[in-house]
Amino acid sequence: VSYCSTLTCILGALLTTYLRILIKQKKSMQNLAAASGNQGDANNAMKTQTSALTLKIALMIGSELLCWIPYILTIIFFEFSSKKPPPLVFELFALVFIPLNSLLNPLFYSGTYKLMTTKMWVLWRKFVEKILST
Questions:
Q1: What are phi and psi of 112, to 5 degrees?
Q2: Which of 47, 96, 111, 113 is paired with 58 by a 20 to 30 Å CA distance?
Q3: What are phi and psi of 86, to 5 degrees?
Q4: pLDDT tens across 31-74, in order?
Q5: What's the farthest any 2 CA atoms get from each other in the chain?
Q6: φ, ψ dihedrals at 106, nearest 5°
Q7: At 111, phi and psi to the nearest 5?
Q8: For residue 18, what are the contacts with CB-CB under 8 A and spacing of at least 6?
Q9: Do residues 62 and 15 touch, judged by C-beta distance below 8 A?
Q10: 3 state DSSP class of 134
C-alpha cells in the first residue's frame, strides 16, 4: 500500500468522523426541539445553544483541515512528481502546522465557556504586561 493511499484513507476517516458528528448533533437538536414543542423562550435558548455548538464543531473541523490538508497535499504532490521534497518542507509542518492544530483544539473546546474565556484573557494580559515591562 502506497503512502499516498494511506493518507487518502486517513483523510477520508477524518472527514467521515466529523460528518458523523455534525449529523448526530443535528439529529439530537431536532429531537430536543420536537420534545420541547413550541415553548418560546426554551426554543430560542435551544437555537442559541445549537448555533454555538455548530460553530464550535465547524471551527474544530476547519482547524483540522487548515493544519492537515497542506501536509497531505504536499505528500501527494511529491508522491506523483519526480522531485524529492526538501527536508525544510516537513520540518515546517512538524514545527508549525501540527503544533498549531494541537494549540487550537483546546481553545475551541474551552473558548465557548464564558468563565474560561475570561480567565484566559486575564492570563494573556498578565503575560503581555510582564513582557512589556522587561
A1: -90, -5
A2: 96
A3: -70, 145
A4: 766 766 655 565 676 677 777 777 777 777 777 777 778 887 88
A5: 64
A6: -60, -35
A7: -65, -15
A8: 57, 60, 61, 64
A9: no
A10: coil
